[in-house]
Amino acid sequence: MTARTGTVGGRTWVFPDLRTLLARASPARSGDVLAGIAAGSAAERVAARRALADVPLTALLEEPVVPYEADDVTRLILDTHDRAAFAPVASLTVGGLRDWLLSDAADEASLAALAPGVVPEVAAAVSKLMRNQDLVAVARRCRVVTSFRTTIGLPGTLASRLQPNSPTDDPREVLASTLDGLLLGCGDAVIGVNPATDSPRATTELLLLLDEVRERYDVPVQTCVLSHVTTTLDVLDRGAPVDLVFQSVAGTQAANAGFGITLDLLAEARTAATELGRGTVGSNVMYFETGQGSALSAGAHHGVDQQTLEARAYAVARAYDPLLVNTVVGFIGPEYLYDGKQITRAGLEDHFCGKLMGLPMGVDVCYTNHAEADADDTDTLLTLLGVAGCSFVIAVPGSDDVMLGYQSLAFHDVLYARRVLGLRPAPEFEAWLGSVGLLDDDGRVRELPPSDSVLSALGRRVLGP
Amino acid sequence: MTRLPAADSADADPWALLRAATRARIGLGRAGDALPTSAVLDLAADHALARDAVHEVLDVAALQAQLGDLPHLVVPSAAPDRATYLQRPDLGRRLGPDVRLPRGRYDVVFVLADGLSARAVHAHAVPTLRAALAGLDGWSVGPVVVATQARVALGDEVGAALGADAVVVLLGERPGLSAPDSLGAYVTWAPRPGRLDSERNCVSNVRPPAGQSHEVAGATVARLLREMRRLGLSGVRLKDDDRGRLESPPA
How far is Cα B165 from Cα A212, in angstroms, rounded to an integer? Predict the structure, then answer.
């Protein structure tokens, strides 16, 4: 390990190893303070950034932040590193990489070629030297396209996950929210419900319900019940209609163990879902969620800052060619991201790192009631992410997730972002919206009462006999 | 088959029936692409109530008055203020540095903890405590501990220090938009620092009339305690057959 130094205002700080340097250089956030690894002052933080700017990128490969022997995520990162893809930037420092990423040389083609060569520590390190506008500008040039029944990530599109959660897995509540979301033009990334009960029975019932709606109205979407991967594999084996396999993932082996998963288990799930062959325009079958703070929360952070660990979770996701990956940025609480400023910064970092590494990155723009944040903050982050070319966002009725007890975006917010930024839904879904009369002549989602829409029978089913 | 209201009837809200069928905020209408003014203000109001609940200070004197002649102690956690409490969960799980609790020998002690909603504790903690005590005939119950800036795991240190076989933490839950005053009851056998959340049982959403009643929640707590004493354990290995929906507590 190499000690590095940085000087600000005539004072010099010594950073004994890369892990410490990354933590001290990271933008201020409560989770790193909680872990006892944050910079002790604003000056120390900038001193660390000065030192980090001079670190050769190769050092980030040679000095793993979590030991190779102790951690299968580190082994995954290093054993599968694409050195040919990395070669064009291999001689740069972290500061030099920032400058290159912002230059005209880093166009869509060169960034796409670079992506497999970007290890998470490189993405995280350079992000710590980047201002919010840098994170937006570079992510905007990263193009990642994936597909199943819709195509995610095409230029000029913003997709949305319709999240019809019910506190009791009540099918009528799930259908009511699904109806609301479809009539507001949402669901093109996935119609994905978090089950209140992670049981094979509840999962199967919800899968059948969503699949029936999809088939009845011939909606080109994928559906997903976000149960544990083992539950999904179980019901898949028994014939349930599984489009996507979902799993929360984290950036260390120990944190993944806390989630009850191994890398082999994810590989098995991907194989099983791929063999079903349910995709029509593509075959990306995995859906992952992540979020800064999950490793610390599980006591599995190895003294590494939460943003670097988050980027390592993307290395896990990348190994399984996912259709969708999103960070749930404001969900975990103020002990990890204290306020709107920290949530906004983390959302932009996560989106940038994911995209730079070649992931179909979306964001759950959200906050809890004990965070110092409100709807103004989610408006701001949504707008920034729209400019940054975010692949998809998550939306619920009226921004109130009545099951998980937090605020995400409202379906309306997706309409707002698409309109002010000139973005459109995924093309297959947009064609469906048009074909069933949900779009006006300008291609905007019409305001239709449910009874006048093609989905009126869905409304009657909510009301029941 | 139920008919939806006709869209063209003069002032019919086409979503009224559907909205009544779900807790979700569906059919809010539109102002252009945005939410209409009334929906924006409704959301703001509910968020404000939840925010105020998070920052409301536990009224210890009022709680002591509610406790009447039940013996009780008041203790702070190691988190000195709300801002610290929110950012340092570890401090909310430990007693303040100057706290000394008198060691005794008890079957159970109850902790009333502000958690993230003092409002829930004001409204529901003492009635739930009394309902639980009604089901614990013959149990030796230690002094009630009123704890400020406290998290669930503070009960582990309190229970161990007081010498209790079990601890029940009645705590204000994180406010949801529609529930700023929800109380949770966390029951742990053989409390000691380091207990895992999977070693607790939880009775959640105590919040009449929308949620569970004090009487039902208190009776469930008492039943859990009797089962724990019979089996000598708590947590995921203990199933509450009468309700069948004990939940894992949050971290």
Answer: 52
Q: Give whole-number Cα distances, B194 to A24, A167, A295, A323, B82, in Å.
A: 29, 30, 18, 39, 23
Residue A462 is encoded by which pair of tokens? 């909510």
Residues of chain B neighbouring A415 (CB-CB closer than 8 A): 33
Among B8, B15, B33, most A C-beta atoms within 10 A, so best to mutate, is B33
In the block, tokens 């992410």 appear at A385
Is the CB of B24 less than 8 angstroms away from the CB of A449? no
Cα A120 to its chain centre, rounded Å, is 14
Q: Tell me, yes or no, if B15 comes closer than 8 A to chain A by beta carbon.
A: yes
Q: Round to whole Å and give the CA distance between B111 and A322.
A: 46
Q: Which amino acid is at B147?
A: A
Q: State mean pLDDT over A106-110.
A: 98
Q: Is the pLDDT of residue B164 over 90?
A: yes
Predicted confidence (pLDDT) at residue A338 exceeds the cutoff of 60:
yes
Dihedral pair phi/psi, residue A415, rounded to 5°: -60, -40
First vs last Cα of chain B: how many Å apart? 45
CB within 8 Å: A375 and B89? no
pLDDT computed for residue B246 by the predictor? 42
Q: Which amino acid is at B85?
A: Y
Chain B hits for A405, CB-CB cut-off 8 Å, are 174, 176-177, 179
Residues of chain B with C-beta less than 8 angstroms from the C-beta of A456:
4
Tell me how long chain A is. 465
State how far the alpha carbon of B63 is from the alpha carbons of A10, B131, B135, B147, in Å. 54, 16, 22, 11
Kindly provide the residue ranges of all beta strands, DSSP E only, lying in A163-227, ordered along the sequence. 190-193, 223-225
DSSP B179: B
Q: How far, in Å, CA of B161 to CA of B155, rounded?
A: 10
- Per the CB < 8 A criterion, the answer to whether A308 and A295 are in contact is no
Tell me if B177 and A405 make a contact (CB, 8 A cut-off): yes
Q: A151-152 and A146-147 as β-strands: parallel, antiparallel, unpaired?
A: antiparallel
Q: How much is the pTM?
A: 0.91
The confidence score (pLDDT) of residue B196 equals: 82
Instruction: Compute the distance between CA of residue A241 and CA of residue B214 in angstroms, rounded to an integer.
Output: 42
Please, what's the b/e burial string for B212-233 (b: 16 or more CB within 10 A of its CB; e: otherwise)? bbbbbbbbbbbbbbebbeeeee
Tokens representing residue B183 in the block: 């109380």
Residue B114's φ and ψ, nearest 5 degrees, are: -60, -35
Nearest to B182 by CA among A158, A227, A405, A294: A405
Q: Could you tell me which chain B residue has the CA closest to the CA of A31? A: B87
Residues of A in contact with B51 (CB under 8 A): 369
Distance CA A285, CA B123 (A): 48
Q: What is the share, in percent, of chain A residues with pLDDT greater than 70?
A: 100
What domains are defined for chain B?
60-247 (3.40.50.11240)
* pLDDT (average), residues A23-50: 97
What ipTM does this complex have? 0.94
Asked if A271 contacts A229 with a C-beta cutoff of 8 angstroms, the reply is no
Going A321 to A327 to A332 to A338, the CA torsion angle's sign is positive
Query: Crossing angle, helix A456-463 and helix A171-183, to 10 degrees?
Result: 150
